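Researcher: Good morning. I'm working through a list of sequences from a screen, and I'd like to move beyond sequence-only analysis. For each chain I'm collecting a predicted structure so we can compare shapes side by side. This is the next one on the list. No need for commentary yet; just the structure.
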Amino acid sequence: MLILVWEASDRLCGKRLKALIPSLLAAIERHGHIDLDTCVKDKLITMSAASIDRSLKPTRTKISSSGRRRQGSGNTFKRQIPVRTFSDWNDPAPGFMEVDLVEHCGGVKQDGNFVHSLVMTDIASGWTECLSMQVRNQLLVVEGIAKAQSVLPFKIEGIDTDNGSEFINEVVFTYSKGMGYEQTRSRLYRKNDQAWVVQKNGSIVRRMVGYNKLSGSQACKALQQLYDSSRLFVNYFQPSFKLKSKHRQGAHVQKKYHSP
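Model: Good morning. Structure tokens for this chain:
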């Protein structure tokens, strides 16, 4: 069972996995993937980080000796998810959303377990939902999308993400297919393909939260309280405006916008 949980966490180290196990087990059970005996669950939750690493050592050694890291599955799903660029949207109906993660690691990327913001922006209206995640995890991504759908004033029709493993995996792919969402992805290293949500990362997340380091369940809950309080102001009272046309003359790009 420890190996199953480790795989579900995308093979975290013992210290990070120990912090994630309680919420990960709860999510796995809530979605009906397993039904654990109370004794087994208690043993998993109370295991020390050192015991976790010691128990997983044979499995890690076996994987390392194979000379390959587990990538085939991700590549398989990536081939099934079409690429969508910024110019491919063509004025869609409400419900097609760009999705991205913002890591609150304090500026320079460091090792550690940091809170993330899941940001979802509707292309047609600019409506944006932000949800806090205690760690970067595919199960929490699915949980966040489901929570966003429960408060959105329209049905999600599609999700467009980058190529991170938290989005391109069996869990998110199967969930999107089951919900009838059209799943697409941006091109590698082309941030402009997700210009709508990247802009909201700055104007909403960074403007409200800043660049401070956030970690732990209390910080995650506090961040969600901030988002719950601000979402109606952001979406109902802040004017937004959309790009009307774009004309390039050499290296210069002239943009015209609709009225806010």
